[in-house]
Specification:
This protein is of the alpha+beta class. It is built from 8 helices and 7 strands. Helix content is 36%, strand content 11%.
Amino acid sequence: MRLTLRVWRQRHADADGAMSTYEVDGISPDMSFLEMLDTLNEELILNGEDPVAFDHDCREGICGACSLVINGEAHGPERTTTCQLHMRSFQDGDTIDVEPWRAAAFPVVKDLVVDRSAFDRIIQAGGYITAPTGAAPEAHATPVPKPDADFAFEHAECIGCGACVAACPNGAAMLFTSAKVNHLGVLPQGAPERASRVLDMVAQMDEEGFGGCTLAGECATACPKGIPLFSITRMNREFIRAARKRR
């Protein structure tokens, strides 16, 4: 495959950025999107040019690091992570636009790399449980109903990639925050912090500068792990209940 890539290049956070055009040839349809970018970078290095900076780690769809907007869609045309997107999703001769996440709370570090530490601070605000030290507790000491366990696992699948923010027209982080709140809030182990968790995490989310949620639904559509939109409405109910109690 021969492709034309239009890639966002930005030397550092305070520099002006622009799209740069590159031609890549000999791309196999079985390559992942990141392997295609590796091929581009090999050519740039051989030509004495600065390679394109992009985030990646596991390349197995687990860590959420591979955050790219491809042809205007978070992670590209398939509902998966960028590292699991393969070049067979494109056609020979295609022009592909590659950009970083676009959100005020995710400032660009360099090229396609953004700073997503805002997510870390939201987790630090309340994404934990009170756990006694000592030996591991008996596995059956705290029974968890099967529906609650399934619900918790469904929300625990969130990998914090930020596609929900990138896809949202408002740049909101409600789907990510609700996944973390609901994951712990439904379990008995997370009950002691249930009220403070939702209040503190939502407050931190607002402080980070994410946009407001209008339930447009783009976040759930883009989520590679399928976190459902009703996660947000459930968190909203939890927030209202906790706010009333705090008063």
